[in-house]
Amino acid sequence: MTSPGRKRVLSGITATGRLHIGNYIGAISMWAENQDQYENFLFVADLHALTIPEAVVGANLRARVEEIFALYVACGIDPEKSTLFVQSDVHQHAELGWLMTCATPVSWLERSTQFKTKGKIADVSAGVGAGLLCYPALQAADILLYDADYVPVGEDQQQHVEMSRDIAKRFNALFGSTFKIPDVLIRKSGSRIMGLDDPTAKMSKSLAERQAGHAVALLDPPDQARKAIMRAVTDSQPAVDFEAGLAPGVDNLLTILECLTGTTRGQSQGHFDGARYGVLKAAVADVVVGRLSDIQDRYREITGDRAQLAKLLAHGAERARAVAAGTLARAYHACGLRS
Ligand code: ATP
Ligand code: MG
């Protein structure tokens, strides 16, 4: 479904852990909102899941990947309007990834915040894989293969998209103009949802695996989701006080509510100024549980028809390969691997 008039968007989520409301608010909901305006290429980044091999359960990985793929659809991404695929189903990602690795200075990779923070996780610090260092080069390949104009992500990924731009420019300088330079697209509010158990840490799939009550996963049972929100860390004040300033945990709850209901901070102030924290939390829990219930109903429908799901996976991969093959050929030609 290529349409020359529309700008192209590329984005994806790594197949580590379970998708949570931060991924939904910061990334997936934005893809869904933009799907009529842009030509979307959206993928499940399964090769990136191997960057911390200690965290991979081989027997589960493909099932986890398909769960995320089905969740994209359940969250409202239309697989006809958007090209939805799994990264490893499109072999051009790994191939262009190697070219990008060769074009990327090690010093750039060493500056990556994710490398610095994830490399310190206790159980991997003894032998961090080179993939954790090099994955921004693969990420550059992911983006550049589709000549993307925009990459919609949460705030934590901004540094990597900037690195993708730099890698593309470096390749272009070395081998002649080959890649389009993409721009990052970040939502004004909700691009950094914080952990419910610790509002100073970004809500993340990997932290949620270790810390109960850190996140609300999109497939959590409603009572578990409600409990996590009701227990969210706020501060020692009893009630919301806009004048005195909001504790980070309160600000986070309001942001979640506003993003899911499309309301403004001004409207929140009208509703919740002076409200006890329990009242705010119950309101947030109602909205979150309502949204999860819609997503989960649709998810059950999609995963209930395995044959149809397999068709969607194959169809998306075929559409993605058609575009990726052209870009890879261009890159092979530019650096002299093909005449
Ligand atoms: P991990 O712990 O495995 O890194 P993650 O939750 O950080 O998991 P990613 O796969 O790194 O998720 O990111 C997927 C997408 O979701 C990216 O666009 C990222 O910017 C966005 N995202 C991740 N966490 C949040 C968050 N807390 N708030 C808003 N957006 C987020
Ligand atoms: Mg992350």
3D structure, described in words:
It is a single chain. This protein folds into two domains: 210 residues, Rossmann fold; 95 residues, Tyrosyl-Transfer RNA Synthetase (Orthogonal Bundle). The model has no long low-confidence stretch (mean pLDDT 94). Strand 4, helix 7 and strand 5 form a beta-alpha-beta unit. With 339 residues, the chain is mainly alpha-helical. Helices cover 53% and strands 7% of the residues. It binds adenosine-5'-triphosphate and magnesium ion. The site of adenosine-5'-triphosphate (ATP) has 21 residues, from strand 1, helix 1 and helix 8.
Summed up:
The chain has 13 helices and five strands. The structure holds adenosine-5'-triphosphate and magnesium ion (MG).
List the helices and strands and how they pair.
Layout: E1 8-14, H1 21-33, E2 39-45, H2 58-74, E3 83-86, H3 92-103, H4 106-110, H5 113-118, H6 130-144, E4 150-152, H7 158-175, E5 183-185, H8 205-210, H9 222-230, H10 248-261, H11 265-272, H12 277-304, H13 306-334
Parallel strand pairs: 1-2, 2-3, 4-5
* Overall 3D form: globular
At the third CATH level, what is the topology name of the largest domain?
Rossmann fold
Order of helices and strands: EHEHEHHHHEHEHHHHHH
Q: Report the CATH superfamily of the largest domain.
A: HUPs
What proportion of the residues is helical, as a percent range? 40-55%
How many independent structural domains? 2
Q: State the end-to-end CA separation.
A: 30 Å
CATH architecture of the largest domain: 3-Layer(aba) Sandwich
Could you tell me which ligands this complex binds, including any ions or cofactors?
adenosine-5'-triphosphate, magnesium ion
Quickly count the helices.
13
The whole-angstrom Rg is 21 Å
Number of DSSP strands? 5
User: How does the helix and strand content classify structurally?
Assistant: mainly alpha
The overall average pLDDT, rounded, is 94
